[in-house]
Fold this sequence. Notes:
Blueprint: H1 2-8, H2 11-29, H3 36-44, H4 47-61, H5 69-85, H6 91-116, H7 120-139, H8 155-162, E1 164-165, E2 169-170, H9 171-188, H10 191-201, H11 203-208, H12 213-239, H13 251-260, H14 272-291, H15 300-318, H16 320-338
Helix pairs in contact: 2-14, 4-9, 4-10, 4-12, 4-13, 4-14, 5-6, 5-7, 5-12, 6-7, 6-12, 8-12, 9-10, 10-12, 13-14, 13-15
Amino acid sequence: xxxxxxxxxxxxxxxxxxxxxxxxxxxxxxxxxxxxxxxxxxxxxxxxxxxxxxxxxxxxxxxxxxxxxxxxxxxxxxxxxxxxxxxxxxxxxxxxxxxxxxxxxxxxxxxxxxxxxxxxxxxxxxxxxxxxxxxxxxxxxxxxxxxxxxxxxxxxxxxxxxxxxxxxxxxxxxxxxxxxxxxxxxxxxxxxxxxxxxxxxxxxxxxxxxxxxxxxxxxxxxxxxxxxxxxxxxxxxxxxxxxxxxxxxxxxxxxxxxxxxxxxxxxxxxxxxxxxxxxxxxxxxxxxxxxxxxxxxxxxxxxxxxxxxxxxxxxxxxxxxxxxxxxxxxxxxxxxxxx
Length: 339
């Protein structure tokens, strides 16, 4: 009985309820929302956000933040295109090179965060500009104009997004679910995952326990960069075009998904299941609002409101002064009723 009650009170259970309510509300307002093919088609462009949020969770548990992932998505996309179209590499070899580049980008930023003590926000903001600039530089190496992008990819590459299980579930979503399992096991069932949590809770205690906190923190940025590259490859395969500005608007949805998923912006707590559910909830929110007439240029407004409200509630819940104030008022209410 207690276990069942505890499960119902978990943050993840609330997120499941939110997703169910989204299906009920948006499905009632627009029957198109309940069409699986249309729904997955809408989610396809949001799957990169879902994938990246899993590993940005690692970063935020250590007390950091990563706002450069969108730039790495664009850099990965254009690298795949240029290496295949202009350098003549096999498309899958080009993907491997791009994955390595994304991991190196994450490692570089992670190094500055872990070993120099510079604020993660500052480092990853600089990384965002740096990797966006590198993406434009790579674009200039191509014979095609930047605005046109690089297209006409091989069918084997496009199959990453065109393949569907049971005639409805796209391969991208299957890859996302596989990464949810992998990231969950790594974070919650391995010594490495426990080190990540300890680095976020108390870095000094982690050092006294013999943990190389700098290496652990740097590695989380490496994984975040690698996940951004995976997302960039899947997005390129889905759209059939490689461009340097892909992922430009991903920062807000990624951070919202991680924070809404229950990961503390101060570090030390969180989980990938919450981030995965929250990312899906945000994606469904955008699709539902879009199907009901809200212009795409305004879709970031409700997401931004959601982020502010979530952070405010989490702050209110952890602030000792506010908790003491509400506790005092609750006691006064009980006394007045008893009297």
